[in-house]
Every structure is written in structure tokens, then in C-alpha cells.
Automatic annotation (TrEMBL):
Taxonomic classification: Eukaryota, Viridiplantae, Streptophyta, Embryophyta, Tracheophyta
Protein name stated in the entry: DYW domain-containing protein
GO biological process terms, semicolon-separated: RNA modification
InterPro entries: DYW_dom (IPR032867), PPR_At4g14850-like_plant (IPR046960), PPR_rpt (IPR002885), TPR-like_helical_dom_sf (IPR011990)
NCBIfam families the record matches: PPR
Length: 893
């Protein structure tokens, strides 16, 4: 690069790769009728030139072209001056008349000589009239290109946002021996910044220095913008600090660069420094910072910034208001977004299309059709009735609000529908359960010439499977690639997984998850968050590890929502150690992370670990929420810390202004009940601010059962029966408590006719996984092979268990006694797991549908001690973890 100033030589046109555009030919062959009689009077060139100029000055371009047509048809030797032709082309530009411009272009042969300036003007005409392809054809056909020609072509590509083509043209321009000037360099640098090409920006920087243009303010600012936009902040700052004569544009560029990278603190420091150096920030500067604060979720700081801006005498414009409305809407503060929209109107600022879209989207999320209709009328009044973006947002809003007729009216009024228009309307029908109407529209979409995208197919699949039509959903899924030539993406598979889970088909959902991976489709966080809850049980411990492996392979472990879900699922599948390991490995934790591990610790009976986590959480500055308090009160209950639990409950309202819910009252009843304070528990229920529900009375019944208070037990059972009169288990408990009190069964029949027989219908069952096979046992079942061996083993174990001499509790159980209903299902599961290979099962995992009875609970403790194994058993009350003869529930369940 010794010599960068290259003379502008004329040379044959170089071939520049460019996308071909279709257009009519530029130089058609004009055939003349040879039999046509020659005109006897030859036109005077000066008269013709003057006449053309007269017509052009008076805006009579069509007549001027008619004159040119006449000259061409007669074959006269009259030639037009380049200046006259240029004036005619300029008139086409001014009137945006590409049709007349093309006619004019056909007569370029009437020029006295080929003129690069005229050809350059043609390039500009085509570009400014919206035909970049025709502009490029003229450009490529030129034998001589000067700086103005290149400027016209680069300017045309720049206006169309074709940044990479601008960069390519720069290199071809240099090959052609032309160096950009201080007006063209900024356009090329803008392209470098917008397409992230910092290397070309550096090259231009060196050329600018060698050419002595580094003192030009526009060039300097454009170079700074490249470094800032490309994220090279250290280079940008160094360049900025060495700049002489920084203006407002320079400051805006460096501040915008830091905002773009999320370094809002440094951006604010530079903003304040701008003040100190005597350059008052303009409206654009303020808007840059306000937009950045909103995009980072700091809406309150953005609002403060807007008020500060007004204090400096700068009135917020439509861009400022739109940024604020959009920021609040996107950060789940949609009511405030709508309030801001109203304030904007009162301030006399007219919204634009983006403002309306943001406000309408807020209404859609809030499901506020009344406010949405008001915004619709505003849009019509301001002339946005036919605006595609506004129309699409209105369809989406009406659909989400269940106003499908209104949505369809808007849909039908949009003449030029795009794929988003169709998707919004189809999605509205699917969401409302009208899959037939959605399918009709889906077919019309294909007939309209707008091909469905993968999103359209996914919307249809989701609609069908969420409305229970799994076969139709699967049919669409399989037809995607065959009929629509669209390969299912991750979202397509996610739709099936989520749909099957919603319909209770866990095994099918997991099967789709495995099939998805076999097709080399990468699961994302949505996939993982959908499938993990299906594994939150003791039977799915191995599946959780399988999914965890997928998370690690796909590098999803750093996503906090995924890590939180893994903590929860591992805890519920019986592996609290893995939960703690994931928690410890997280770089950032939110309140959900802490709550999940605290709840998991309580589930496994680790009360002190839960309380320690609570203390650590508060030390890190996180405020407990409703979920935290439920777990902590439960932890106090497990630890026997009654006074501490009461204090925690009081602090909810006193310190954190959280009104207790039914889940907190239930935890408090367990707190009192576990310690035997039944009267205090009953008084607490009587003093509740809200009506006690089923869970509260069930908690009291548990306390009565454990501590032998028959009077309160009868009362609690009767309250439960009032709430769920058809619950067979409750009816059985009522019968048992009445029997203990000597109350006649007939009285129950009188009050609840026909219900007594239903108490016989519910049977207990248990599931256990052995050698990757899930086996189900039912109480009293003797149909399975080797039943005699199972019963013999159980009888042998029962003979070794020492029963307590006295029993303070009440013998009332959800399940029929073994003397009536047969051996309970969990005992059959224990026997099946341990017979023949007692050492093979160090960990037994069982899921049971009913509450364990005391005898089965005692048996499980004995087996865990005798065989040295751990037993995880999840019943309708809690998770039991038996180890060394003890259970994590503390014998209270």
C-alpha cells in the first residue's frame, strides 16, 4: 500500500458478482420501416434542444419523450446534449416515475456522445425509484466509472440496507483504481458497522490516515461508530479519547456502543462527562440511554432519565415515549405501559405504528379487550387501519382475548396479508379450540400464495394436541416435511412433548423426547423444562439422569431455569444429594433456586439444612416469598421449633407484608399438630381469616390420628366429608371414627345416602421398578406368579417385627385392614424386590396411591435396618425415606 492515491483511469468494465435482477432490456433494437417516406424538412438541432428543455422545465415529460420517439422513428441525425438528457432524467427522479425513466433510457443512443455523467444519473434514477437491479445493470454496462458513479451505486445499496454489497463494491472500486472521498467513506464505514465487519473498518482506517482524511469530522465519527457497533469498545474508547473536536455525534457513538454491549454504567459515566466538557446531550443522546435502560429491564431508571431530560428543557419525542411503552410492556409491567400511552396522548405526542403495536401487545398479554378496542379506534383515527404490523397485533390481541369475530374482521380487512397475519388468526382459532376453522384457514393460506412456515405447522400441531386430538397432531407432524417441504424443528417436537404431557401421556412424551434426539434434533431449554416435570417421581430416577446427561451435552446447564428444574426433579425423584450438587455449582441463583432446594430439603426431612439455607438466602440479600414461608414453617415443624415457626408466620405480614394463604395455614396446623398442641391447632383454625379448605382439615385429622384425639378426629372427618362428599377414602375414615365413638352407621346412611357402599371401591396399589421394568401390585392380589413365595416371605418378616406394647394414636386408615382387604400392596413390593437377591437392592423405590398404614410403615423401617437398604416410598401424604430403621417423616404423616 505504498501508493494509495490511484489516478482515475478509463478502462474496460470489470465483472462484479451481483445478484441478477429481472427487468426489461435497456437498449432495444429499434426497427425502422424502410418504406417510410423521408421527411423533406430536416429538424434544426437547436430548435429540438430548446423545445425539449422547454417541455422539461414545464413538467411535460411525456411530451418530451414523444419528441424523442419521433426523432428516433424518423431516423433523423439530431442528437441531444447530455445536459438536456440529464435534466429529463432528473425530472423522472423528482416525480418518482420509473416508467417514464425506462422510456427515456431507450433513447440514450440519441446522445451526441457517451457520457459517464448521464449513465451515472441513470443509475441514480433507477436506484431512487426503487429498482436497484436496473441500476446495477446500467452500472455494470458502463465502460467508464468515475467517483460519482461509484458513489451513486454505493449510495443506492446503502439506502436499501444491503450492507455487505456496499463492502463488496468498496473493494471492486479500489480494484478499478478509484479511492472514496470524505463523503463516500462514511457510507462504506456505516455498512461495515451494520454488518459487523470490523476488519474492513480497520483497513479503511489505515487508508483514511494515508490519504489525510482523518481530520474530517464525518470520517472520524464514522470510524468511531464502526469500532463501537462491532463491540470493540477498548479500541473505540482509545480512538475517542484521541479525537480532536469531539461533537455530539462522537459522544452519541461511544455512548451507544457501551449501551449496545449492556455496559450501561460506563455509558452513563460518559454521558455525565459529556455534560462536564460543555457539550449538551441532544434528544438522540437521551433516547440512546433511555432505550438501553428499558432493554436491560431497568424501566424505573429509564423513567427517571426521561424526567431528568425534561428538566433540561428537552421534550420527549415519539421515539422516547415508544421506548418507554415498549420497555414496560416487555418487562411485565403492562398496566404501566398503557398508562404511559395515555400520558403520551395528553402530552400532545402522536404515536407511530410501533407505539401502537407495543400498547396493543400489552392489552393482549393482559387480556384486556376493552382497552384493546380503544387502541383499535385510535389506530383507525390516525390512519393505521391498513398498517400490516398494527393489523397483525390487533388480530393477536383479539384472539388472545377470545374475541375471534373481531379478530376475523381485522384479518379480512388486511388486503396484503403476510405469514404473521395468517399465523395469528390460525393461532387464535386453535387456542379457542376451533381446530376445524383453523384447518380451513390453513388450507386457504396455501391457496393464497403465502406458504406456511414451520411456525404455522407448529401452531396447528399444538392446537390439535392441546385439544385432545393426538392422532391429527401426529398426522400433521409427519406431513410437514412430505407436504410442506419443511423439516420439523425443535419447537415442533416440543409441541408434541408438551401436548402428550398435558394429556397425561408421560411415557409417550418421554418416547418423543428420545425419538427427537435419535433424529439429531437439538433439545432446547423449553424441551427440558417440559419433560423434566414428567420425571418428578421415584419411578423416574434413571430418566432424570438421562435428561441431565442431555442437558450437559447441549450446554444447557448454565441456564438458570433448567438448573432450577433439575434441582426440583432430583429432589422429588429421591436424590437430594444431586440437587445440592447442582445448587452448589450454580454461578447465579434467584429466589426460585433457593426455594426449590429448601423445599427439597424439607421433603427429605432435612429440616436443619432447610433452615440453614434460609439464613444464607437472607444474608445474600434475597427476600423470602410465599413459597419460602411454606417450606420454612414446615421445617420448623419437623425440627420441633414451635415458637420459631409461630414467629416466622407472624413475620410474613409484619415484616414482608405477605398475606397468608391456605398453604401457610396448613403448615401451621402441622406445626401445632406434630407437637401435640391440638387445642391450639383447633383455635388457630377457628381464627383463620379465610375459610379453611380440605388440606387444613386433613392436617388436623393427621394430628388427631397420631395423638389419639377422637373427638376432634370425628369433627375433622365430618368437615372433610362436607367438602368432598364423594371421596371414598374420607367416607371410610368417617365410618372408622364413628365406630370408635360408638356412633351408629345408620346415621351416616341417613345423612349421606348411598355412600357407604362406595367406601369399598378404592383399592391400594403400589408400583416398583426392578431391572428397568415397572411392576404394579394391588392389595390382596394373588394372581401374579410365585404369589405363595411372596406371602410366605411377608409372613416370616411380620413374625420378626416387634410391635409396641401400647398405642396412643387412633387406628383409622384410608386403606382396608389386611384382615379384610388382604396384604397391602407395598409389602408385596418389598417382598418382590428382596426375595432371592437381598443384596442387589440397596435402594428400593415405590410409589403408592394411598397413605401408608402404621403397620406397613413399621415393616419398612424394620426392612431398612435388617437388610441395610434404603427405601424411598411416596404415598398420598409425603415422601418416606427409610434408612437404618428410621423414616424422614419422623413417624408423622
Amino acid at each position: 500500500m505504498e501508493s494509495l492515491i490511484i489516478p482515475c483511469n478509463s478502462k474496460p468494465p470489470i465483472t462484479i458478482p451481483f445478484k441478477q435482477f429481472s427487468s426489461e432490456p435497456f437498449k432495444p433494437k429499434i426497427s425502422f420501416n424502410k418504406t417510410q417516406e423521408s421527411v423533406s424538412i430536416k429538424p434544426d438541432p437547436r430548435t429540438t434542444e430548446a423545445h425539449l428543455n422547454y417541455l422539461c422545465r414545464n413538467g411535460r415529460l411525456r411530451e418530451a419523450i414523444t419528441v424523442l420517439d419521433s426523432i428516433a422513428q424518423r431516423g433523423a441525425k439530431v442528437k441531444v446534449r447530455p445536459s438536456t438528457f440529464t435534466s429529463l432524467i432528473q425530472f423522472c427522479i423528482d416525480t418518482n416515475s420509473i416508467h417514464l425513466g425506462r422510456k427515456l433510457h431507450k433513447h440514450i443512443d440519441l446522445l451526441r456522445e457517451t457520457d459517464p455523467f448521464v449513465e451515472t444519473k441513470l443509475v441514480s434514477m433507477y436506484a431512487k425509484c426503487g429498482s436497484l437491479g436496473d441500476a446495477r445493470k446500467v452500472f455494470d454496462g458502463m465502460r467508464e466509472r468515475n467517483l460519482y458513479t461509484w458513489s451513486a451505486m454505493i449510495g443506492a445499496c446503502s439506502r436499501e440496507g444491503r450492507w455487505w454489497e456496499v463492502v463488496d463494491l468498496f473493494f471492486f472500486m479500489m480494484e478499478d483504481g478509484i479511492v472514496p472521498d470524505n463523503f463516500l467513506f462514511p457510507k462504506i464505514l456505516q455498512a461495515c458497522g451494520n454488518c459487523g465487519d470490523v476488519e474492513t473498518g480497520k483497513l479503511i482506517h489505515s487508508i483514511v490516515i494515508r490519504c489525510g482524511m482523518n481530520c474530517e469530522a464525518r470520517v472520524r465519527n464514522s470510524l468511531l461508530a464502526v469500532y463501537a457497533k462491532c463491540g470493540r469498545l477498548s479500541s473505540a474508547l482509545r480512538f475517542f479519547e484521541n479525537m480532536e473536536g469531539k461533537d455530539r455525534v462522537s459522544w452519541n457513538s461511544i455512548i451507544s456502543g457501551y449501551c449496545q454491549e449492556g455496559e450501561i454504567g460506563e455509558a452513563r459515566r460518559l454521558f455525565d462527562l459529556m455534560h462536564e466538557e460543555g457539550i449538551e446531550p441532544g434528544l438522540v443522546t437521551w433516547n440512546i440511554l433511555i432505550t438501553s435502560y428499558n432493554q436491560l429491564g431497568n424501566c424505573d431508571l429509564a423513567m427517571e432519565m426521561m424526567k431528568e431530560m425534561e428538566s433540561f428543557g428537552i421534550t420527549p419525542d415519539v421515539f422516547t415515549w415508544t421506548s418507554m411503552i415498549s420497555g414496560f410492556a416487555q418487562n411485565n409491567r403492562r398496566n404501566q405501559a398503557l398508562e404511559l400511552f395515555q400520558e403520551m396522548f395528553l402530552a400532545g405526542v402522536e404515536p407511530n405504528g410501533i407505539t401502537l403495536v407495543s400498547a396493543i401487545s400489552a392489552c393482549a398479554s393482559l387480556k384486556a379487550p376493552k382497552k384493546g378496542k380503544e387502541l383499535h379506534s385510535v389506530a383507525v383515527r390516525l390512519g393505521f387501519a391498513e398498517d400490516l404490523l398494527v393489523g397483525n397485533s390487533l388480530i393477536d390481541m383479539y384472539s388472545k382475548c377470545g374475541e375471534l369475530e373481531a379478530a376475523r374482521l381485522v384479518f379480512d380487512m388486511i388486503l396484503e396479508k403476510d405469514v404473521y397475519t395468517w399465523n395469528s388468526m390460525i393461532g387464535g382459532y386453535c387456542q379457542a379450540g376451533y381446530c376445524g376453522k383453523a384447518h380451513d384457514l390453513f388450507m386457504k393460506m396455501q391457496e393464497s400464495g403465502v406458504p406456511p412456515t414451520v411456525i404455522t405447522w407448529n401452531v396447528m400441531i399444538t392446537g390439535y394436541i392441546q385439544n385432545g386430538d393426538e392422532d391429527q397432531a401426529m398426522d400433521l407432524f409427519q406431513r410437514m416435511e412430505k407436504d410442506g417441504s419443511i423439516k420439523p424443528d425443535t419447537a415442533s417436537w416440543n409441541s408434541l412433548i408438551a401436548g402428550y404431557l398435558q394429556n397425561g401421556q408421560k411415557n409417550k412424551a418421554l418416547g418423543i423426547f428420545r425419538q427427537m434426539q435419535s433424529f439429531s434434533v437439538r433439545p432446547n431449554s423449553v424441551t427440558i423444562l417440559s419433560v423434566l416435570p414428567a420425571c418428578a417421581n421415584l419411578m423416574a430416577a434413571k430418566k432424570v439422569k438421562e435428561i441431565h446427561g442431555c442437558v450437559l451435552r447441549r450446554n444447557l446447564e448454565s441456564e438458570r431455569s433448567v438448573a432450577n428444574s433439575l434441582i426440583d426433579t432430583y429432589a422429588k425423584s429421591g436424590n437430594i444429594v444431586y440437587s445440592k450438587s447442582i445448587f452448589d455449582g450454580m454461578s447465579t441463583r434467584d429466589i426460585i433456586t433457593w426455594n426449590t432446594l429448601i423445599a427439597g430439603s424439607v421433603l427429605h426431612g432435612c429440616s436443619y439444612a432447610a433452615l440453614d439455607l434460609f439464613d444464607l438466602m437472607r444474608k445474600e440479600g434475597l427476600k423470602p416469598n410465599r413459597g419460602t414461608f411454606v417450606s420454612i414453617i414446615s421445617a420448623c415443624s419437623l425440627a420441633g421449633m414451635i415458637d420459631e415457626g409461630k414467629q416466622i408466620f407472624s413475620s410474613m405480614t409484619d415484616d414482608y407484608h405477605i398475606l397468608p394463604g391456605l398453604e401457610h395455614y396448613e403448615a401451621m396446623i402441622n406445626l401445632f399438630g406434630r407437637s401435640g398442641r391440638l387445642e391450639e391447632a383447633f383455635d388457630f383454625i377457628e381464627g383463620m381469616a379465610i375459610e379453611p379448605d380440605f388440606s387444613v382439615w386433613a392436617a388436623l385429622l393427621t394430628a388427631c390420628r397420631i395423638h389419639g384425639n377422637i373427638g376432634l378426629a370425628v369433627y375433622a372427618c365430618e368437615r372433610l366429608l362436607e367438602l368432598e362428599p364423594g371421596n371414598a377414602s374420607i367416607q371410610r375414615l368417617v365410618l372408622q371414627t364413628h365406630a370408635l365413638c360408638g356412633i351408629s352407621d345408620d346415621s351416616l346412611i341417613v345423612r349421606k345416602p348411598g355412600k357407604r357402599n362406595e367406601t369399598r371401591e378404592s383399592l391400594g396399589w403400589s408400583c416398583i421398578e426392578v431391572k428397568n421394568m415397572v411392576h404394579t401390585f394391588v392389595a390382596g392380589d394373588k394372581s401374579k406368579p410365585n404369589t405363595e413365595i411372596l406371602y410366605s416371605w411377608i409372613k416370616n418378616i411380620a413374625g420378626k417385627i416387634k410391635r409396641p406394647d401400647s398405642h396412643d394414636g387412633l387406628c383409622i386408615e384410608e386403606e382396608e385392614k389386611e384382615e379384610i382387604g388382604g396384604i397391602h400392596s407395598e409389602k408385596l413390593a418389598f417382598a418382590f424386590a428382596l426375595i432371592g437377591s437381598p443384596q442387589a437392592y440397596q435402594s428400593i423405590r415405590i410409589v403408592k396411591n394411598l397413605r401408608m398404614c402404621e403397620d406397613c410403615h413399621r415393616t419398612a423401617k424394620f426392612i431398612s435396618e435388617t437388610y441395610g437398604c434404603e427405601i424411598f416410598l411416596s404415598d398420598s401424604k409425603c415422601l418416606h425415606h427409610f434408612k437404618n430403621g428410621h423414616c424422614c417423616c419422623g413417624d408423622y404423616w
